[in-house]
Amino acid sequence: MTFPYKHVLLVGATSGIGRAVADRLIQAGIKVTAVGRRKQRLEEFIEKHGEEKASAMDYDVSDINGAPRFAADATAQYPDIDCIFLNPGTQRKYDLTDPKDGDLSDFRAEMDVNFISYVALTQAFTPFLMSKSTPTSFIFTTSLLALVPAPRIPAYSAAKAALNAFLYCLRDQLRESSIKVIDLAPPLVSTELHDYMGIEKGRSMGIPVEGYAEHVYQVLENGSDEVIGGGVGPTEVFRDLNDKRRQVFDEVVPMLRDV
């Protein structure tokens, strides 16, 4: 099989997994419109790949109320988009026993970026994708932490778990449409996401991001709607846990559709 989409709008493309996957998609001949809040990095992305292969839009996903306008602008400017790849993320540690370690606004802001922004953008882009006569898709970056949380990063873990549950619901509600819902659940990957630990320590953890991007592309090219893990660590354990959870969902959901 080949990757079936021709123009990917990739939100959260200025660094980390988003940037690496964007580079890999362009290498495969797929056009990418990169979206992020760091204009210089967006310009560098276009300079690297050229305007025929790459384009960019400036948007900060923390502007939740701005999602409908952004979607309208993006689809008007690039009506051939057939894949919305949502990848924004932020992460920090919280000591839940210490009331001075981050207030509620910090926790809420992290939930907004890692979960609510995804919901807002999904709602904003769904009518456009449903209007297409050709196959389309949403790709969401969740995490293995959606299955097993990391206690030191409760906001991030909770947001990814919420996003994972949202994808199950979305996939079922779109089951009769031509929109495919793809869950990208990475393991620990070496990116800027962990810079709060110190750059040297944070970026030395996890598998190399370029290698992970290659793994992602190979799985997506095979037509899967899930990319669970990245071939390192207890990947099979996570896949088994995910498979059992999805099996239970598929068996139970017919009884829940009218609830």
What does the secondary structure layout of this molecule look like, with pairings?
Blueprint: E1 7-11, H1 16-27, E2 31-36, H2 39-49, E3 54-58, H3 67-77, E4 83-86, H4 104-130, E5 136-141, H5 154-173, E6 179-185, E7 189-190, H6 199-202, E8 207-208, H7 209-221, E9 226-228, H8 235-256
Helix pairs in contact: 1-7, 3-4, 4-5
The arrangement of helices and strands along the chain is EHEHEHEHEHEEHEHEH
Global outline: globular
Give the proportion of residues in helices: 40-55%
Number of helices: 8
Walkthrough of the structure:
The protein is α/β, with parallel strands linked by helices and 259 residues long. 46% of the residues lie in helices and 15% in strands. The protein has 8 helices and 9 strands. The chain has a 7-stranded parallel beta sheet, sandwiched between helices. The protein has a two-stranded parallel ribbon with strand order 7-8. The termini are far apart. 37% of the residues are buried. The mean pLDDT is 92.
